[in-house]
Design a protein that fits this description.
single chain, 585 residues, alpha+beta, eight-stranded mixed beta sheet, six-stranded mixed beta sheet
Length: 585
């Protein structure tokens, strides 16, 4: 609980001090919301709404360097008061703030041009910037479609939030007639019930991120004026080069997680940029002003952590997120279903979730091992941000009736797997923070560009205790000198065993030792019939964790096939429109 409060305070402080920075008068692009209307002839009418806070410079601009077969027409700008900006034929980039007030224009550059408009005054503004892309939708030999960059990389500053909505009047865009892909940002792109396509980011973009949208349409939906002999499949192949899915190549897709912590009289800012091409890759960012890798370079000595003594004490201060971090470092597992199951079991123990015997066991839709339904009862005391966030996800999945069911969670995880992906991304960071706070990780200061983290001696002791406890659970029934006070810890044993993927096996061993053990009751039952209740609980929570994994994987597959879902990090090559850079100057 103490660690959770510390991290929560850190996040609150960050939200107060970093985005606003009123004392520093920082430039901010709070959001860019894009609305695209596709017309019959393939024209895309683009409207961008920029919500900004500006305190220096004279203008905003958008470089356009990749038009190719498209044409840009009807560039217009209005402000939050609905005032139309005057279009100036010969735009002067060096003009003053006053010269550019309520004016817009196009500035030629060697490889294209820039859409420019004056700031008018400093402070908060909301600009509506619009233009038409002629020939946005183009004909290919197999389908019609496009791959367009709507928001550039290397913007100054990078947008805090981005969103896009795409529609075609008179048509419902759906997975039956359209395929969709999003590249360059951490977020999602999905079909909506109203026949529109909608996407959004899940967090602030970094300078290397962008928004490229690729769409494929069945023939007959448009009458494109530009026709290619090549196939759309070739365009797609080019776009997918370098595309990194959260679910395939990496657990992370470049999210930036920032924390600001209070230490006495000063604030320490930790910016963690997650960039993990492989499970064991670096998680780099700035810690106390220096670029840091938060994944330690683990070089275990021969036999280290493999031949360990039994450990009966609860490892890692009984913090599940810290244990999960150790799992990820050493076992290289991508399994997160066990973490969900362990949290659910913990909440059952603490009466936050109430198990109840099913009344529909004869239904063909019910897994016969899942003899229980789980009712959301009351909010837990969270030990970590990760625990808080997965609780919120499960509450949403449970719906209005507050009942957690396997099919519901699987469906939710598939539809909203971008949200689940963000949770997975943060879990490892949360575990690293926990180990840093306990002294299990330390910083190696050096004169190079990148300072590394290392496992400290106390960290090695924590890890050794973790694997010693795992060994203890595996040999649970053969260890002698069983004490009654140890039975009081069995609930925690079972929760940790579930995280380790050993829940059913350990529970069966417990039943062999003390048949009248009852999970979550803090007491012993009258007879051995409690085994079946315990089995039902373990089976139900395992099924829920597994269903989340299955739904998540299904959502990942749908995204790669163009059915909507999570965006790709990187990729989107061969795009038209947009370019690189832009923002405030």
């Amino acid at each position: 609980m103490k660690k959770f409060i510390n991290v929560l305070v850190v996040l609150i402080l960050f939200s107060i001090f970093v985005p606003v920075r009123t004392g520093a008068q920082a430039e901010r692009i709070k959001s860019i919301d894009v609305d695209v209307i596709l017309e019959e002839d393939g024209t895309a009418k683009v409207v961008q709404v920029w919500d900004i806070s500006t305190h220096k410079g004279t203008e905003f601009f958008i470089p356009i360097t990749e038009l190719k077969d498209m044409k840009l027409e009807n560039f217009k700008v209005t402000d939050e008061e609905g005032r139309d900006f005057e279009f100036v034929e010969n735009w002067n980039v060096k003009g003053s703030l006053e010269d550019k007030a309520f004016k817009c224009g196009i500035n030629s550059i060697p490889n294209g041009f820039e859409l420019c408009w004056g700031k008018g005054s400093y402070g908060d503004h909301r600009y509506t910037v619009s233009w038409d892309y002629k020939n946005a939708v183009q004909a290919y030999s197999d389908y019609d479609g496009f791959n367009i960059r709507f928001i550039n990389d290397k913007m100054t500053p990078a947008p805090e939030n981005i969103s896009i909505r795409i529609s075609k009047p008179g048509s419902n865009l759906s997975a039956e007639n359209t395929k969709i892909w999003a590249f360059g940002y951490v977020g999602e792109l999905v079909f909506k019930d109203d026949g529109k396509v909608q996407g959004k980011s899940f967090r602030t973009l970094n300078k290397n991120e962008y928004m490229n949208i690729m769409m494929r349409f069945e023939k007959g939906m448009f009458n494109p004026q530009v026709k290619h002999n090549d196939s759309f499949e070739r365009l797609k192949t080019r776009a997918m080069e370098g595309a990194t899915s959260n679910e395939k190549k990496s657990v992370f897709t470049n999210p930036i997680v920032a924390f600001t912590a209070s230490f006495g009289f000063f604030f320490l800012t930790i910016i963690i940029v997650l960039y993990l091409n492989r499970l064991q890759g670096p998680v780099t960012g700035f810690y106390n002003g220096k670029r840091t890798n938060f994944i330690p370079k683990i070089k275990p000595r021969k036999g280290e952590f493999k031949k360990v003594d039994y450990n009966r004490e609860l490892p890692c201060d009984n913090e599940l997120i810290k244990m999960y971090y150790i799992q990820r470092l050493f076992i290289r597992t991508r399994e997160f279903g066990n973490l969900i199951s362990a949290y659910i079991l913990k909440w059952i123990k603490n009466n936050n979730i109430i198990p109840e015997e099913r009344l529909d066991l004869n239904s063909s839709n019910v897994n016969k091992d899942d003899k229980l339904i789980l009712h959301i009862n009351n909010e837990p005391e969270f030990e970590s941000i990760t625990e808080r966030d997965i609780w919120g996800i499960l509450v949403k999945a449970a719906g209005k009736n507050g009942i957690l069911e396997e099919k519901e969670f699987k469906k939710f995880a598939k539809k909203e797997f971008g949200e689940l992906s963000s949770w997975i991304n943060f879990a490892l960071v949360d575990g690293a923070i926990s180990l840093l706070e306990s002294g299990g990780l330390g910083i190696i200061n050096n004169d190079g560009k990148l300072q590394e983290t290392q496992i400290t001696e106390s960290g090695r002791e924590e890890i050794e205790n973790y694997f010693g406890f795992e060994k203890f659970l595996k040999d649970f029934t053969i260890i002698q000198e069983r004490q009654i006070k140890e039975v009081e810890l069995w609930d925690d044993y079972l929760i940790i065993a579930t995280l380790m993927g050993q829940g059913k096996e350990v529970m069966k061993q417990m039943n062999e030792l003390i048949p009248n053990y009852i999970f979550g009751q803090g007491t012993l039952g009258a007879d051995g019939s409690n085994y079946y209740t315990n089995l039902a609980i373990i089976s139900t929570v395992n099924s829920l964790g597994n269903s989340g994994m299955k739904g998540y994987n299904s959502g990942s597959l749908s995204a790669s096939m163009g059915d909507g879902g999570s965006s790709f990090s990187g990729g989107g090559g061969g795009f038209s429109g947009g370019g690189s850079g832009g923002g405030s100057r």
